[in-house]
Amino acid sequence: MPAAEPMQSVHVRRQAGPVQLLRPRLTPRVKKAVRLLLSLLSLTAMFAVLIGLPFSNAPGWLDGYLTALARDATLLDTALALEWPGHTPHKAVDWVSVLRSQTAVLSAAMPDGGAVSTAPPVLPQQPDGPAAIPLFQPGNTGTPAPPADSAEMAPPAPPTDYLPDPRAPMLREGTFVPTSATGYNAYGTVFINNDAKAEIDLEAMLAQQVSLGFRPGSPQILIVHTHASEAFFPDREHFYIPTDVERSEDKKFNVVRIGDELAEILTAKGFHVLHDRNIYDYPTYTGSYTHTLASITQYLADHPEIAMVIDIHRDSITTDEGLIYKAVADIEGEKVAQMMLVMGTDIGGLPHDGWRDNMALAVQLQKTIVDKHPTLMRPINLRRDRFNQHATAGSMLLEVGTSGNSMAEALRAIQIFGEIAGDYLSGLQ
């Protein structure tokens, strides 16, 4: 692994849901007034979205109404932390995002609204030791340049009144790389973020003889998506209206598209790949792993020859200040999304006797990739939960990018992963 530049430790938190903002200290009377106003705004937005009304061509009264609200950036940002009647906070965030992305008149509020600061935050230093993970190497701040066009499944051109996502000033970019073994289990170029506090012998796992028993002519690899609606940061080339915060049911814009790409690459490598493109996490996350396990179990009943299950996700990394981090790697001058293997254990209480065999496969694949591209993979995350990985000895969970990465960056990352993983897995047959 090449020597890394000195880096700043940054406290970040991974999360599946939306950014949780601090609630402002408002009097009950003001809160009631804001809730009433936002309820009216919610109904207006929902009505306009349902009938497909472009707000920039709205009647004068509606245009003026929305313009007045848009200019009050403080009110809109306060709305992010208040619950609208009948809605959870993430729905409030979602509707405001939809409203902002569809309304051309809102552009007047964005340049000088003062609600969002583009200056780098003063972040707390992180002590050395087991808690000092993950580390972060800051890169350029601010809005990233639009990614190159994706040749595959190019979406329709965005509307002529397209506006950049209002969260763009909150984007921060960098590369997650360890600078020392402190806080990790490490051996050579392989680093493990051992959240499970499990006893592992990386040297032995790297030397272990891994065999998945792929059978020619039969289904060999299954690709699934427990959280299929996880989507990427919208841009002009991959513009979409979110179904929920950072999520889309449109499979051109969520991680199902990433699974399509990996399936195509592995198929070209000679593998028989099945891809479950169903969405199991919408409209609710609750029970998504249970639903996915039922699907995996059925696939294995129909095709017992399947030796490997890859569950593809998209990560989310934010700070307490509300910043959104995109994790990138520079691969021969090209910016691509970083990826991370998440491996399960039986420490959480669910049966998974063979987790060390799954882990041996993961660490050997990780080493194969980082030896070629040292920054493409974040350290493996070893967890207490099993993530349905007890189903096969070849099961693994792959996080492709974060909610701050573009679809183009994620697609390029999975292409590189697929090429290297395909060659590595071919050697196991």
Helices and strands in order:
Elements lengths: L12 E2 L13 H23 L9 H12 L1 H7 L9 H14 L34 E5 L29 E5 L9 E3 L2 E5 L7 H6 L13 E4 L30 H14 L4 E3 L12 H15 L5 E8 L1 E2 L5 E8 L2 E4 L1 E5 L11 H18 L7 E3 L13 E7 L4 H20 L3
Parallel strand pairs: 3-10, 5-13, 6-7, 6-8, 8-14, 12-13
Antiparallel strand pairs: 1-9, 2-3, 4-5, 10-11, 12-14
Helix pairs in contact: 6-9
Mean pLDDT: 75
What is the count of structural domains? 2
Lateral strand order in the biggest sheet: 4-5-13-12-14-8-6-7
Unreliable segments of 5+ consecutive residues: 1-26, 53-153
Q: Mind telling me the CATH superfamily name of the largest domain?
A: Zn-dependent exopeptidases
Total of helices: 9
Class of secondary structure makeup = alpha/beta
- Over the alpha carbons, how many angstroms does the gyration radius reach? 23 Å
Strand content: 5-15%
| Sheet having the most strands | 8 strands, mixed
CATH architecture of the largest domain: 3-Layer(aba) Sandwich
| SSE order, one letter for each helix or strand | EHHHHEEEEHEHEHEEEEEHEEH
Report helical residue fraction: 25-40%
Total beta strand runs: 14
Instruction: Look at the structure and give the CATH class of the largest domain.
Output: Alpha Beta
- Gap between N and C termini: 29 Å
User: What overall form do the CA principal axes indicate?
Assistant: globular
